[in-house]
Specification:
Elements (H helix, E strand, L loop, with lengths): L6 H22 L6 H36 L10 H35 L3 E6 L3 E5 L1 H7 L10 H4 L3 H11 L7 E6 L4 E12 L5 E9 L1 H37 L4 H32 L11 H10 L2 H6 L3 E6 L5 E2 L3 H18 L5 E8 L5 E8 L6 H4 L11 H6 L6 H12 L2 E7 L3 E9 L3 E2 L11
Helix pairs in contact: 1-2, 2-3, 7-8, 8-14, 9-11, 11-14
The structure holds adenosine-5'-diphosphate.
Length: 459
């Protein structure tokens, strides 16, 4: 395409010719036709052509840039200034759109990085922080905004600093576990790190801090549990062995031998009880689902209590039932309910002194969505400082008393886990010397109404 067809050139040329023509007309005026006038007119013409040519070059350069921005293959070279201006406006709008889309994408990525539970740090050379997500901030607890600071200002943990240095140096260190002493608690973190380069060629390191604290705590709990369980088993077993050996020696008289057999029996039962509770607890810990009834709650409560009749009588404990008029059946796992209630009743009878009182109440919350069953006793009560811990495995307020009463130290842990499986909870209210109330709160899936159901009464 020749320059003569260029609209800008043509416009420029028309204007140039107009100027030059005007100059020639002026030159042809009477009295102006002298050679200096003519020379001036010719000079003006040449200058005008040069200026037109220059503006065409500038314009072509501008158009090429707009073509680059626009990116379309259309032949637009014949466009004049108005067309070009409209394309500039369109290209500008598109660039603005692309910029907003990129900003949105950036915000979304940042949102994802913030939402993840993993701590994420991005470092530039010199271990300067370029990005620190919320989780990383929470783990490292700097009392200031960490971005822009050196990693060494944010944490003094030598293992983390060394790890970051290795990653930045491209050493690809093995994933590492570190222990971090926080202001409130000790954290265990697993570190992952990789080096990368930005599109601008800058070196960066990304460190991922994975929180292992919960897992580590569980490991400790498990180790303690095994140690405690072995310890609990050792003492009845040692007693059984001792008595059996003495019996075997044949040196005991008849009364002593009977006493030894009684002790063997007693400790065997204790061991049996302990193993049963351990199996029950382990079963509950591995149970994620439960049956959904239908269950006649009142009948189940009476059924559980029937198995304690002898014990209640032996200790002359008065039993009171305050069972609110419950619908006939509730959608509830009857076996888990029995497990929880039995353990609470067992404890209430164990710890209530002779002549005491145990009250069992049950009621449905408004709307019938939650069943509350409470076991209250007039026993020794549990001091406040022990109340949160009595649901831990093998935790006892008074170890000697619990063992003497045949306790395994697992009853309330079993209740707690049964409630977890049922999606409910167990609450404790207690005052030393006045008694304890354990309250089971159970979500009820559905209720089958049964009109005319009788309310409970004193058993
Ligand atoms: P244990 O087999 O020793 O009774 P539990 O797990 O059932 O174990 O209970 C843990 C501890 O909580 C008991 O050792 C006892 O100190 C205390 N406890 C539980 N129930 C009662 C209660 N009804 N009254 C007083 N103390 C209780």
């Amino acid at each position: 395409m020749g320059i003569a067809s260029d609209p800008v050139f043509r416009t420029g040329l028309v204007r140039t010719l107009f100027v030059a023509g005007s100059a020639l007309v002026v030159a042809a005026l009477p009295g102006a036709g002298s050679w200096p006038w003519l020379a001036a007119a010719v000079t003006a013409f040449v200058a005008a052509v040069l200026v037109a040519r220059r503006s065409v070059d500038d314009f072509a350069d501008l158009r090429r840039r707009v073509d680059e921005l626009d990116g379309s293959d259309d032949d637009r070279a014949l466009e004049g200034p108005a067309g070009l201006a409209s394309r500039v406006a369109k290209a500008h709008a598109r660039v603005e759109d692309e910029r907003s889309a990129a900003e949105l994408e950036h915000a979304e990525l940042l949102g994802i990085l913030q939402a993840t539970g993993e701590g994420i740090l991005v470092l530039s050379q010199g271990a300067r922080l370029v990005l620190v997500n919320d989780a990383a901030h929470r783990f490292l607890e700097p009392p200031f905004e960490a971005v822009g600071r050196g990693l060494a200002e944010v944490t003094r943990n030598a293992a983390i600093l060394e790890f970051a240095e290795d990653v930045l140096a491209g050493k690809a260190p093995e994933d590492r576990e570190v222990q971090l002493e926080g202001a409130r608690a000790t954290l265990w973190l697993e570190l992952y790190g990789r080096r990368f380069h930005t599109p601008m060629g800058e070196t960066r390191a990304v460190l991922v801090l994975h929180d292992l604290t919960k897992r580590k705590r569980l490991q400790v709990v498990r180790t303690d549990f095994v140690a405690n369980a072995s310890h609990e088993m050792r003492s009845p077993l040692a007693s059984i062995l001792g008595y059996a050996e003495t019996l075997g020696a044949g040196t005991l008289d008849e009364a002593q031998a009977r006493r030894a057999v009684e002790r063997i029996l007693h400790n065997s039962l204790r061991l049996d009880e302990l193993i049963r509770d351990l199996i029950e607890l382990s079963r509950l810990e591995h149970t994620a689902t439960h049956e959904h009834g239908p269950l006649d709650v009142e009948e189940r409560i009476r059924d559980v209590l029937a198995s304690y009749e002898e014990k209640l009588e032996a200790k002359r404990i008065r039993l009171e039932l305050e069972l609110e008029s419950l619908p006939h059946t509730l959608q509830l796992d009857g076996e888990l309910f029995r497990t929880a209630l039995s353990n609470l009743c067992d404890n209430a009878i164990k710890y209530t002194p002779e002549g005491g009182r145990i009250t069992i109440t049950s009621r449905l919350s408004e709307g019938g969505r939650e069943l509350e069953v409470a076991v209250a006793d007039t026993g020794p009560g549990i001091p406040l400082e022990h109340q949160a811990r009595v649901f831990e495995r093998f935790y006892r307020v008074d170890t000697a008393r619990s063992r003497a009463l045949g306790g395994t130290g697992l009853g309330l842990a079993i209740v707690k886990h049964a409630m977890i499986v049922l999606g409910g909870q167990v609450l404790l209210e207690s005052q030393p010397e006045r008694g304890s109330t354990f309250r089971l709160l159970l979500p009820v899936r559905a209720v089958t109404p049964a009109p005319g159901r009788s309310t409970g009464g004193t058993a």
